[in-house]
Amino acid sequence: MGKKMLIIIGVIVVLFIALFFVIDYKNNQALENSENPYGTNDLDQATIDQLDDPLYQNIILPNDLNEKINNGEEVTVYFYSPTCVYCQNTTPYLAPLAEDMDVDMKKFNLLEFGQEGLSYNIESTPTLVHFENGEEVSRLVGQYPEEEYEAFFNEYVLN
Description:
Largest sheet: 4 strands, mixed
Strand content: 15-25%
Radius of gyration: 20 Å
Number of strands: 4
């Protein structure tokens, strides 16, 4: 009985090791075959899964966002997390709406850059913020119907 148990445990260990290498290989292939705007391959799995998703393009990095705000540029930023259920529900209608309305909505991934997001007082996701002249003009925190986002864009972005 002891010998059989050791063989079973050995097979299980080998399977877990093989699974690790398969997942690692898959992630490396995904990073190589996609446009990776993050500038690093050390990404969370949820972020890797979204690299080729058209809803999660137009990513802005923390330094680029700081530069835009410090230069007084007008910028609209969608702060989200790939693991946030509310973001997963909001993005499929918010991203196309922004595109249809010709709003250059930048996306800031808090899963990857959460510490950098603290300076913008982001307490929950999703959060949509519009900046003008280096200052925050307005924000929507939480999940809203599409009409609320459309009104936000009309009032603060397209005015």
